[in-house]
Amino acid sequence: MENKPLYKAIDMEEKLDIIFFHPAGYQIAVLAKPLGMTPDQISYISMALGVAGGFMLSSWNTAFTGWLLIIMSSVFDSADGQLARMTGGGSLRGRILDGMIGYFTFTAAYVGLLALNLRSPDSLGWTVMLPLALAGGAFTAFESSMYDFYRTTFAGIVSKRHVPDDAGQEELGWFFKMSYAGYGVYQKFFAASHLRLLNLVRARYPDQLPSEFCDDYRATNRYTVHFWNLLGDNTRFLLIGVCLILHRPQWYFFFIIGPLLFLMIAMALVQRGCDRKMISHFKLEETNA
Hints:
289 residues, mainly alpha, Four Helix Bundle (Hemerythrin (Met), subunit A), 12 helices
């Protein structure tokens, strides 16, 4: 067995993941494997910790404990993927479940932060905070989807020389199918140029991708993927912690619908340029003509 964390693609990993989340998650995966635990079971533990921690943000007496539980949830979230790689598993269902952990955790966290602000002396009140929380939740869903989409694609192409597909979708239950369908809607709206690139690539290279394309994809996207990382969970964990320390929970929502939304729009424009460059370089348009 490997004695170090197992990464999807080291080029795209965040510093916090390399330093803390993946090493800690790896230790949990090492302990879980001989117990016969499955990645899905680890995922459900992660979800339970995240949801409990999110609701605990609703009171200043438990807010920091709740934040620590959310951090622990992310450690288990790392562990499920590493356990899947250790056991040769990994599936579309597991990937969807992994994304659902974040949705449920942050839904609970937003309810907790909303309640925490309403209990604070300087609360902005229901009429301001409820729309802020709802908008923050919606934009978090968009931002998280783009984060996951570009990371999954980068890992598939760079590490496996394969464009990720929907294999296994027919085996999903109705709830997972519905969740994945929503994920696809976000892609079509915010990542249209990249989807077009991937469709052209599949048409040109139906089997394994050539090394030249994978190397060029890595060189073109290795820096953009790190900006997409800023839309991920680690940024939100840090922001929640800062807002709790400053006793300004409402600032969290302003950040989500302000700077992070601006970053997502800016990165969509930058990514469009990168995608056009790759389409032109490999003359992929001609394949579809």
